[in-house]
Each structure stands twice: as C-alpha cells, then as structure tokens.
Amino acid sequence: MTSSTECVDQPSSADQRTRIQTLNDQLRQTGTGGRVVLTAGIAALPAKDIAGILMAVANFDAFDGDNDPWGEHDCALLHVDDRQLFFKIDYYDRALTNLSPDATDPAVTIRIMTVMLAEEY
Fold it and tell me: Taking 70 as the threshold, does the pLDDT of residue 10 lie above it?
C-alpha cells in the first residue's frame, strides 16, 4: 500500500488535531464512531474484495505530509492488489445537513468515511 494524494482540511490546534485524529482512527480502524459508506464501484466488487479493501483501510498507517497535512488521518490514497482506492472522512452536524460545528465533539458530529475507487473521485 502506498499513499500519494493531498487532502486539505482546516488547520486546528494541536489538542484539537490529536482529538480529531483519534476519532478518525477509531472510525477507520473499527467502523465505530460514525458511518462507513461504500461507493457503487466498491459495493459492486465481490465480498472478499470488499473485506480486503476495508481491512487495508483499517490497517493504513502511511500518513505523511502529502496525504495528511493537518495530522487528522482523514484521507489517503492507497493500493490494494491492482486497485487504487481513496478514503475520506468528513464531519457533519447530527442532522447531516451542514458541516459539524466542532469535529472534536462526538455529541455534535457524525463522521462519514467514504471508501471509493480512485476513478470514482
């Protein structure tokens, strides 16, 4: 697996960044603390391929300045077998109508992690 895309979000203080990173890692690694959405391209794959992709996303740890400039572990481009994939975590308010007022606070935030084929981006 490799990463090579840049994801841009709002910069935050070190404490906020650490809290957001922890919450994002929890969703990415365990599927808890938010929702995981698969695009049509991912969902159309065989179940074993989907399982492998979700495992690769969960195990991804090659965050760097190119794909994680704010240190929030919110997105990356990676390769699984011959597929190039992308995941992105976004922060919405509880009604899912606007961006979250505070991405560090699960009481006011729903995290949505979208997993897609790179060509679907």
Answer: no
